Amino acid sequence: MILVGCSAERIRNRAGDYLASGEYEKALDLIEKSEQSDPESAVLRAGSLQLRDQAVMQLLTRAGLERAAGRLDSAEKLLRRALPFDRSGDRVGAALAEVDAERRQRVALEKALELFDRDPSTALAIVQGALRENPSNRDLLSARQRLDAKLREGRLYGAATGLTESRPVTLDFRDVNLRLLLETITRNSGVNFVLDPDVGREIRVSIFMKSVRVEEAVEIIASTHGLAKKVLDERTILVYPNTPEKRREYQEQVVRIFHLSNSQAKDAAGFLRGMLKLREPYIDERTNFLALRETPENILLAERLLTLYDSAEPEVVLELEVIEVKATRLLNLGVKIPESITLTPLGPDGSTGSLTLGNIGSLGRSDVGLTLGSILLNLKREVGDYTTLATPKIRARSKEKAKILVGDKVPIVTTTTSTGGFVSDSVSYLDVGLKLEVQPTVYANNEVAMQVALEVSSVTREVQTAGGGLAYEISTRTAGTALRLRDGETQILAGLINREERSNASRIPGLGDLPIAGRLFSSQSDNNTRTELVLAITPRVVRNITVPDIGDSEIWIGTDSNTRLRTPVVPGQMTPPADAPGEPRLRNDLSEPLKVASSPSATTSESVAPHKQKETPDSTVALSWNGPRSAIVGESVALIVDADRTPQQDWSGTLSYDASKLELVNARELEALRSIGGRVNVTKEIVQGRGKAHINIYNVKSAQAQSQELTRLVSDADAGGRHLEIRFLARSAGKTAIEWVELGVSGSVDIQKPYAHSIEITP
Question: What is the mean pLDDT of the chain?
Answer without folding.
Answer: 76
